[in-house]
Fold this protein.
Amino acid sequence: MIDIREQFPLLPLDKTLYIAQKLGIKHPTDPKNKLPIIMTTDMLLTVKQEESIKFIAHSIKPSNKLTKRVVEKLQIEKEFFKDQKIEWGTYY
């Protein structure tokens, strides 16, 4: 393990907006001003495997908090990292 980053931002914002639109999911917004917010993933790990560096993203959610809305946001995350060719997984 080389590095662990918590609450790693999914940037650029336009990318998650596009993914949400493509999936037909409402993008997360600020409850006060209703503007789109920058999504984050719980952890982005940087690991060394043999002679290469690899990134692995993890979303960690309590199973009793898996509402329909949480699952929708996880779908956006999954597509974001799939497009980046970064391994992504969820843990409950």
Remarks:
- Helices lie at 13-23, 68-84.
- The beta strands are 3-9, 40-49, 52-60, 87-91.
- Residues 68-84 form the longest helix (17 residues).
- The two ends are 22 Å apart (CA to CA).
